[in-house]
Amino acid sequence: MKTHHITIYHNPQCGTSRNTLAMIRNTGIEPELIEYLKTPPDRERLSEIIAAMGLPVREIMRQKEKRYEELELNDAKWTDADLIAAMLREPILMNRPIVITEMGTRLCRPSERVLDILPLPQRAELSKEDGEKVIDALGGRVV
Hints:
Layout: E1 7-10, H1 15-25, E2 32-35, H2 43-53, H3 66-70, H4 80-89, E3 98-101, E4 104-107, E5 126-127, E6 133-135
Parallel strand pairs: 1-2
Antiparallel strand pairs: 1-3, 3-4, 5-6
């Protein structure tokens, strides 16, 4: 039987991150859980993750974060290397959750984006913390 490895860069204080984790666990897989505020990726790993997502660096930053504004990171003068350095110094600037599976790497905002890269189907009905049903009783996605 093939084992599936999933990594989630997670913030347990974030509802979107908790909902994403619940959808991963609903497949029967227990992911590698990295609380990125406590254990941030190094420069090489963060660069790999960004490349795998295929998104501009700025798109994986928490642009609504107070520190983003305070550091004036919206200024076009900042290079990708500068933005990565800012996230390494202050991991709160990294958006979350980021999930890595053999099917892809995604910033899972909204949390349902994780469903596109999970290697196994959902096993049971599931609702988000706010009560919104995302998986029906047959394990199918509620649209």
